[in-house]
Design brief:
ATP-binding, 152 residues, tRNA threonylcarbamoyladenosine biosynthesis protein TsaE, single chain, 7-stranded mixed beta sheet, Rossmann fold, binds magnesium ion, 4 helices, binds adenosine-5'-diphosphate, cytoplasm, 28% strand, globular, T6A_TsaE
């Protein structure tokens, strides 16, 4: 199941991110995919607002994962700099993936082989300077309902 929607400016992407942050529950996993500058971090920042995270969410530059406190914890991964899957062993990633928070994983396709079985994949495609196509793919019925709720 995949559903795509276009956003015509950053504000629209943020509205979508925040709404998803409002809807998610503990243990939900979100995989973000898209080129540099597509809007993954923009989406994540708004998602965090929906989760009631008060701290400003930034791209974790020197760490692979950053934890934030919100309505439920947010575990924000950015695995862009991963060159070898073995580097993931340096962090207790399973404690995050199967922990009590919500995981957002930027560049998730780079660690495909260790991802949890079920998640929502959010693929952000650059269309033009202010337009993005955002595609949501759900791997199971629970996530499918969540995506339907998000886009209705
Ligand atoms: P990524 O994390 O995918 O590398 P960022 O979120 O850091 O990307 O950057 C996205 C950039 O694109 C931001 O500068 C943002 O203002 C801009 N932008 C323009 N239009 C949009 C849009 N419709 N949705 C999201 N970001 C947009
Ligand atoms: Mg980013």
């Amino acid at each position: 199941m995949m559903k795509c929607i276009k956003t015509f400016n950053e504000k629209e992407t943020k509205a979508l991110g925040k709404k998803l942050g409002d809807l998610v529950k503990a243990k939900d996993v979100l995989c973000l995919v898209g080129d540099l500058g597509a809007g993954k971090t923009t989406f994540t920042k708004a998602f965090a607002i929906g989760l009631e995270v008060e701290e400003d969410v930034t791209s974790p530059t020197f760490t692979i994962v950053q934890e934030y406190q919100g309505r439920i914890p947010l575990y924000h991964f950015d695995v862009y700099r991963i060159e070898n899957i073995d580097q993931m062993e340096d962090i207790p990633y399973e404690e995050y993936f199967y922990g009590d928070g919500v995981c957002v994983i930027e560049w998730a396709h780079l660690i495909e082989e260790i991802l949890p079985k079920d998640y929502i994949k959010v693929q952000i495609n650059y269309v033009d300077i202010e337009t993005r196509e955002i595609c949501f793919e759900a791997t199971n019925g629970y996530y499918k309902k969540l995506v339907e709720e998000l886009l209705k």
